[in-house]
Amino acid sequence: MGRYVIRRLLQMIPVFIGSTFLIFFMVYALGDPVAALFGDKAPDPATAARIRKELYLDEPLWKQYLHYMGQILTGDFGTAFNGQKVTELMASAFPVTLRLTLVALLFEVVVGIVLGVLSGLRRGRSVDTTVLLLTLIVVSIPTFVSGYVLQFLIGVKWGAVTPAVSPYAPFDELILPGVVLALTSLAYVTRLTRTTIAENSRADYIRTAVAKGLPRHRVVTRHLLRNSLIPVVTFIGTDVGALMGGAIVTERIFNIHGVGYQLYQGILRQNSPTVVGFVTILVIVFLLANLLVDLLYAVLDPRIRYA
Amino acid sequence: MPEPEPHGDPRAADPRPAMDAITPGDGGAMTLATGDARSLDEGPQPGVPGSGKSRSLWSDAWHDLRRNPVFVVSALVIVFLVLIAIWPGLIASGNPLQCDLAKAQEGSQPGHPFGYDTQGCDVYTRTVHGARASIAVGICATAGATLLGSVLGGLAGFFGGWWDALLSRIADIFFGIPIILGGLVFLSVVTSGSVWPVVGFIVLLGWPQISRIARGSVVTAKQNDYVQAARALGAGNKRMLLRHIAPNAVAPVIVVATIALGTYIALEATLSFVGVGLKPPTVSWGIDISNASVQIRNAPHMLLWPAGALSITVLAFIMLGDAVRDALDPKLR
Amino acid sequence: MEHQRDQPVTLLDVRDLQVEFHTRDGVAKAVNGVNYSVDPGETLAVLGESGSGKSVTAQAVMGILDSPPGRITGGQVLFRGEDLLTMGAETRRRIRGAKMSMIFQDALSALNPVMSVGAQLAEMYEVHDGMTRKDSRAKAVQLMDRVRIPAAKDRVGDYPHQFSGGMRQRIMIAMALALEPDLVIADEPTTALDVTVQAQVMDLLAELQREYNMGLILITHDLGVVADVADKIAVMYAGRIVETAPVHELYAAPAHPYTRGLLDSIPRLDQKGRQLYAIKGLPPNLTAIPPGCPFNPRCPMAQDICRTDRPPLFAVAHGRASACHFWKETLDER
């Protein structure tokens, strides 16, 4: 188990470097942050050169990257061009997005697995067909459409929740945005759970469990569920990244000042330290989530643990 | 002797059969590469020797598809969408860019069933003309990602070794970037607002998904006994790949690509909505939805029509992929 | 039929069992009126090719038929005189595993991959006897000792994939025998094993059977296994029993051409150098079983009557029956 963890950690390193470099490359190589800083005005050449020097922009790209990563490792994410420290922005934005993602994840896991198990156990019956059709429809409606429609219906027309979220973004105000954020993933979790349940319910060891005279609920909970949830857990882990990315859209709809909002502002203003800093943290969160999934995977599946 | 199973039993070789296939874009497509161990055991098998009608996977699938209403309906919708994408004038003769501010946000009226948007443009005309951008992005991006992904993934699966390892790591890197995030960063520096940067970006972040599927199915196909036999008989690499492996590995790729087409269309609309995808004067559902969203309380019709068109388009492609998967995957029958 | 129905109730009495599968290619008649019975301590070998219906019959008896597509369309399964097919689901569940149990062919896929073997064994006691987890674990270790798994105490927490094929099959046997059932159905229990291990596992099974005086249904296509352990044999073809006989009588003189074909296709040392006999043709498609005798297209003795009239089971001798119009001729040919 220890060796397994170490191997997974080592495998994360090149992915981390690759992903962050890719983002770094896109932000720095494709845009000109100094020109953006000055907006429409032509920058004073001397000032521009000084800023470039300060930001290591006159160095080759890989040196800039190394320099930047070195700073990040010491906890210095740089300063946004408005003078605010990027870490300050993060401290205000990440807790909000984390809460939003948590609400979404909870909704996705609970509702998705319950629906998936129900339809998987009744494969081909009307419950199954209905759930399958609903998930297809949900997948087909982009988040920004379902977001506005639900906000309009539930928030504005019926007044059940406040349509916009206050700056502090407490959990109860994040329920509707969380649900909107989770919808697509929820559909995938449902379908995946259904597929693995349906597949595993025909497995030989399930037949053995029935032949042993176990009651049905024990066959399902002890034998079927544990085997079937292994791929679902994997999906949910990889989905953390998709949820945080999707938060950009959801946060915009509900006017939530989280990571997505800050990133969007950063990109609009070509505020490179903000963008790269936030993305780096997101990539780290994504990788950690995947590591966690791998560990959970090893706990759930002894064949991995002892491999 | 029963016919060779289309896929080996992955449980023996890989205790994580579903891993390769699980990416947010492919829905339930993870069931494909699994053979039905039960049918080897006992009990009646379709295509038992002696029944005289052993059919190929493809003709079997086609036989099923023609009778599947989901397939027929979604295929018809897609044909219709492609037609109006090519010739929008067929059903909407107006000019989507010709607007009359005096009519801003007016509702449905004779000759203009969907009403007008904030700029006073005819929503019906814009909705019809918006199909072109969506379909173009969807088809081009899928073609690019599928071509790139299946060639790279297929070769990696076939040859294995360092190339396989390298490609898997590169794919991991692209998976490490949430797609909307990458789109924001990548496309914010491209200001042309035309279809091509969007297509390029989707291909860039979309190929690893296809390549994983292609790699997985090539690896599975490679393990089949008859492929091993062909190799033992001295078949060359090229012949092996083209004659024996590609035909068996292509089914899962097609399924995932069809479903991906739907999600790419949704992605394009999302990027346009955020403001980094297509830009005016290109007519796009994403842009129209974005503009309409501000006014949803006053004039919901402006949002609902393009949103409905977008959802139906995405749904049609996803349902088509779903139906094709069901037909090609005998497992869950 | 040579059933002794006036005797005290038999352990298991399968009467006219019929099972269908609904497939895309039509209705496959997998089991078409099967009769057999087993007494305590008796071993019945059910012999047949793949698709002959031998496993499907066993699944129907156990109540673990995949349904859909499988469906029992007729017959009775009397266990100690009570019909399992009309019994309530809960009553039947309590019989399963406790009074009658099953050993599957491939222990690797038949054991739950993510549960330790100890937990899978202990589960039997927890569910059927209401034992505590601790007690049931102790019983699981005893059970593993009983089937001669070395260092049972250390291995009780191991997972199926950590055992060798032979050891896994021993665990499968231990699980089936945990509650000392009256009847055990073993579906090809040694087919997936190495030849050297097969004999050990078979011997263990036979030994435990004697000790507990269980009825045993041994499903196999391996005539060699049958000769050593079975008391009587039922040969199945296309969902029917075509011949039943005490094991030695059947080996000495088969009364059905299909049985003879099977026996002749065993390689024998005393016939070295001679061409091996093979039954020509293939088993019938179960969605379109030929009229008359289902074996007629492959039968060397087939006459016109075989293509039109389905032969019933003719009583050949005491305890023997054959579903062949020409059973006499077949018997005499030896």
Describe this structure in words.
- Chain A: Its main location: membrane.
- Chain A: Residues 94-297 form the ABC transmembrane type-1 domain.
- Chain A: InterPro entries: BPD_transp_1_N, MetI-like, MetI-like_sf.
- The complex is a heterotrimer of chains A (307), B (333) and C (334).
- Chain A is mainly alpha-helical.
- Chain A folds into two domains: 2-73, no CATH class; 92-300, Orthogonal Bundle (MetI-like fold).
- Helices cover 78% and strands 0% of the residues of chain A.
- The longest helix of chain A has 38 residues, at 216-253.
- Chain B is elongated, with a radius of gyration of 23 Å.
- In chain B, helix 5 (123-159) runs antiparallel to helix 10.
- The model of chain B is unreliable at 1-54 (pLDDT under 50).
- Chain B is built from twelve helices and no strands.
- Chain B is mainly alpha-helical and 333 residues long.
- By secondary structure, chain C is of the alpha/beta class.
- Chain C has one domain (2-111, 182-270, 277-333): Rossmann fold (3-Layer(aba) Sandwich).
- Chain C has helices at 54-62, 89-95, 107-110, 117-129, 133-146, 152-155, 165-177, 195-212, 223-229, 247-252, 257-264, 304-308, 327-333; strands at 12-23, 26-38, 43-47, 70-79, 82-83, 100-103, 183-187, 215-220, 232-237, 240-246, 314-317, 320-322.
- Chain C has an eight-stranded mixed sheet with strand order 6-7-8-3-9-10-12-11, sandwiched between helices. Chain C has a four-stranded antiparallel sheet with strand order 2-1-4-5, with helices on one face.
- In chain C, a hairpin with a 2-residue loop joins strand 9 (232-237) and strand 10 (240-246).
- In chain C, helix 7 packs parallel to helix 8 (195-212).
- Chain C starts with 11 loop residues before the first strand and ends with a helix.
- Chains in contact: A-B, A-C, B-C.
- Chains A and B meet through helix 1, helix 6, helix 7, helix 8 and helix 10 of A and helix 6, helix 7, helix 10, helix 11 and helix 12 of B.
Main beta sheet of chain B = none
C-alpha end-to-end distance of chain C: 24 Å
Mean pLDDT of chain B: 74
CATH class of chain B: Mainly Alpha
Structural category of chain B is: mainly alpha
SS-based structural class of chain C?
alpha/beta
Global shape of chain B: elongated
Q: In angstroms, what is the radius of gyration of chain C?
A: 21 Å
- Note the total helix count of chain C: 13
Tell how many strands the DSSP assignment of chain C holds.
12
| Main pleated sheet of chain C | 8 strands, mixed
CATH superfamily heading of chain C: P-loop containing nucleotide triphosphate hydrolases
Strand order of the largest sheet of chain C: 6-7-8-3-9-10-12-11
Number of domains of chain B: 1
**Helix proportion of residues of chain C, in percent?**
25-40%
Pfam families (chain A): BPD_transp_1, BPD_transp_1_N
Keywords (chain A): Cell membrane, Membrane, Transmembrane, Transmembrane helix, Transport
Main location (chain A): membrane
Membrane topology (chain A): Multi-pass membrane protein
